[in-house]
Write a structure and sequence with these properties.
By secondary structure, this protein is of the alpha+beta class. It has 9 helices and 15 strands. The strands form 6 sheets. It has a 4-stranded mixed β-sheet with strand order 10-11-15-14. A 3-stranded mixed β-sheet has the order 1-9-8. The chain has a two-stranded antiparallel ribbon with strand order 2-7.
Length: 381
Amino acid sequence: MADTPRDYYGLLGVGRDATGEEIKRAYRRLARELHPDVNPEPEAQERFKQITAAYEVLSDPEKRRMVDLGGDPLSSGGGSAGNPFTGFGSFGDVFEAFFGGAGAGAAGGRGPRSRVRQGADALLRVELTLAETAFGVRKEIAVDTAIVCSTCTGTGCAPGTSPRTCGTCGGSGEIQSIQRSFLGQVMTSRPCHVCGGTGQQIPSPCPTCGGEGRVRSRRTIAVDVPAGIEDGMRIRLSGQGEVGPGGGPAGDLYIEIAEKPHDTFTRDGADLHCTVVVPMTAAALGTDLVLTTLDGEEKLDIRAGTQSGQVITLRGKGVPRLRSSARGDLLVHVEVRTPTRLDEAQEKLLRELATLRSEDVSVTSAKGGLFSKVRDAFGGH
């Protein structure tokens, strides 16, 4: 009679749809309770063997597939029924389930890290006028960043010398130590404090850069600012940032645009806004004004009867749209200014005008004033 397949999912207390990470967590939890160094009871030791075998099976994709098809990879047909550790590579697999690395006696670690590393990005804020952001400009900009040391060309070594293997870590970049735990001997690694994990030492550092392979320097670069760029936008210059340690490749340089306020115009995307103030008489009679735009002088027609708050739109007189040949508009807001002081002659003329236009300017008349009209409208006496 064939053996009944063992319930490996049940041994670990997980469902058949459990992920690999869920299976690992379940095994860790049970192993901490049942390991012989923690629980010396014979039943616990037997249970520990069972869950270890279950983890070995379910963590192997091929063996788990066999279980899902109704088989048993550790049965007499697929292994040794009497030994639940059959096919279980080594006790290092148990260690890996806990720590995600090699166990005692395992060879090597991550190895030395390179002295040459990628440089950081740099950010520079540049102020531009409205005309420069509107039509674009080629700008010479002073940049203060790390560059490759010209004395050692990035090696960090004095001329005529070279790095040597670290005598502390033997070039591995790591220092290993062994500690005892309930799982036995555990080997841990940490970066070498002498070489910083690179596996190399510089016996004679470069006198210019002190072994860094890079120095700070101010240089001038030309930046092409595209037409239509807006305040707060950034231009990316690839490979123009900070050179990395050991003369590593440079990061990127970002130019952030800061648009200076304009005396006349305010900007809203590609549109421009401005305000013109006209006297009351000019608004009533109409007039022509000359407005200085970004393109030069423009005639502005103030039609007779123009009211305060009216907007006159000059099509295509705004800012060019970024990466487009189209332009925004210039919106002129009209503000009609009423005189605050009138001399006797001016007041007389305005009263005559009001009379000619049948406009009652009195508010104190007992019969024909504004208040009496309001009262009469509501049936007052």
